[in-house]
Amino acid sequence: MLKLSGIGGRLYRGETSIDFIGKRRRWYSISALFILLSIAALSLQGLHLGIEFKGGSSFTVNKAGASIADARAAVATVGIPGEIIVQNIGTDKVRVQTVALDAAQNNAVQDALATKFSVTVESIDTQIVGPSWGKEITRKALYGLFGFLICVMLYLAMAFEPKMSVAAIVAVIHDVFITVGIYALVGFDVTPATVIGFLTILGYSLYDTVVVFDKIRENTRTITASSKSTYSQATNLAVNQTLVRSFNTSLIALLPVGSILFVGAGLLGAGTLKDLSLALFIGLAVGTYSSVFIAPPVLAQLREKEPAMIALAKRVNGRGATPTTFAPVVVASGEHRGPRNQPKRKGRK
Prior knowledge:
alpha+beta
């Protein structure tokens, strides 16, 4: 049984090691399962695009105790075609979203809501979003996503190495795909806040991955000059050395986001927060997983195909070396390695 006391130090020194790289097929299988579920959710349900992307009309009624059932019943009397989305915003507002309506239909919906909730027509907040504006928002969101990925690849290629950028992008695509799939499965609306959440989790996922890659680069800087370990073994040690840090930073980030999602959107009914908080919560969790279980194994696979790494693996296997640590031995001031040569004493007469 693994003892948790002092686990961080033992992982860093290599005294305790989890085989992340050697069991990469297991992690790939888990990711493949979630990706298949995401594909199924996107194929069967698809994404519920918000009014900002597909266009339409939005009516917000400010009335204490306003219920979704009453709002839906009021709109049903008008006979509006297409899907109607009704949701509470806090405890004193209800919002109705419909497809694009003409002037007569907009007025009819306003009158029906005003009559149902006993409010004036002027107090109902009405917004009309045209389909062309929604297409423009979608286009800008895609530009932002692709521009982000290109900038990240260029930075990682210059700061680290090209194969690290490839592994990082694979992990990012993995994170976004699973997050979008879960979003489709849950059925939340995709709004501009959702896009902001996606871009935020991309940055966080890369931050965690860069921390791991920096340690990998440190462990493998002069790896070909010796025959102590293969590239995969050095990569596995780096992942173990940064594991506790990744877990701690992710946990600290998930706590406030979880509060926004479960307390703000769930208990307090702040519907405007759930789009952003759900994307952040899922993305943070998946991003932490990919920075440990996906990006390093992909990097190790890419590097192990290089001739220099193949030759290194042959030398290591030929020596039968199975090292567990690359941590330097720290020698305190005044201490010596090995036995000390004591002066010989003259025998007593």
